[in-house]
Specification:
Number of domains: 1
Strand order of the largest sheet: 5-4-9-2-11
Keywords: Signal
Distance between the termini: 26 Å
Strand content: 25-35%
Protein name: DVUA0089 family protein
CATH architecture: Sandwich
Order of helices and strands: EEEEEEEEEEEH
InterPro entries: Ice-binding_C (IPR013424)
CATH topology: Jelly Rolls
Largest sheet: 5 strands, antiparallel
Number of helices: 1
Shape: globular
Pfam families: PEP-CTERM
Length: 243
């Protein structure tokens, strides 16, 4: 059964700011391939909020970012922040790679939730309550292939069509820019019956990750019934690749 990360298992660093908009930086390591990290944040005034990871270049796993409103409705889901760039958070310039995740969206004032998962653990639907594709499989990347047997990238190619090292680490770095508050959230473990149901859906669907090759690759949706919509833009005005 999936192990949900708790406060003792997350080595997270939080840079607090004043009551006005600030930046928040978190980092740590997954325990299992299918871990799901949740971050609550509050937007005090309408504006552009940036969410991004910066751990891929340091050897971390291939992350997926999803954004949800306070009712658990999905607003965006993003896999690769191609072509990679840099972003300032708390006065520090963080570089992110093409397989990191990047979202920059105009958000209304209110409460939001971001989730961080490993590819290809996409959300099952646009409702957070429905969970994620790999909730019942704590070691799912072993099927992608690597000598470590976990946190595997498989036969992955970058935008230059060069092969990527298949063995990745459990490390993650996540940043929330221009919000009033942000914190890591602890969530209850999904019910056993829901895990079994998700496992059955996965087995029936026979879903396996496909290698990503170059800038034209778009990650497949785990559920073709729900269209993912986002106004996210790359800093260089290139549309973010939404899964």
């Amino acid at each position: 059964m999936k192990t949900i990360l708790c406060a003792a298992a997350i080595a997270a660093s939080l840079s607090a700011g004043p009551a006005a908009a600030a930046d928040f930086d978190f980092n740590g390591s997954f325990v299992n391939d299918n871990d799901v990290l949740r971050f609550n944040f509050t937007v005090g005034a309408p504006g552009v909020v940036t969410l991004f990871t910066s751990s891929w270049l340091g050897g971390g796993f291939d992350p997926i970012l999803s954004l949800w409103d306070s009712a658990g409705n999905q607003l965006a889901e993003q896999d690769d922040g191609f072509p990679g760039d840099s972003q300032v958070s708390n006065g520090t310039l963080f570089n992110y790679g093409e397989f990191d995740s990047y979202l920059a969206l105009n958000l209304a004032a209110g409460d939001y939730l971001a989730t961080l998962t490993q590819y290809d653990n996409f959300s099952v639907s646009t409702a957070l309550a429905d969970g994620f594709l790999r909730d019942a499989d704590p070691n799912f990347t072993a099927a992608f292939g690597c000598s470590n047997g976990r946190f595997c990238a498989g036969s992955l190619f970058d935008s230059n069509n060069d092969p990527v090292e298949a063995n990745r680490t459990a490390a993650w770095e996540f940043h929330v820019v221009n919000v009033d508050t942000a914190q890591a959230a602890t969530v209850p473990e999904p019910p056993t019956l829901m895990l079994l149901a998700l496992s059955g859906l996965f087995l029936l669907g026979g879903r396996y990750a496909k290698p990503k090759r170059g800038p034209g690759y778009l990650c497949g949706q785990p559920d073709a019934g729900a269209e993912k919509i986002s106004a996210a833009l790359h800093p260089n005005r290139v549309p973010a690749r939404i899964a």
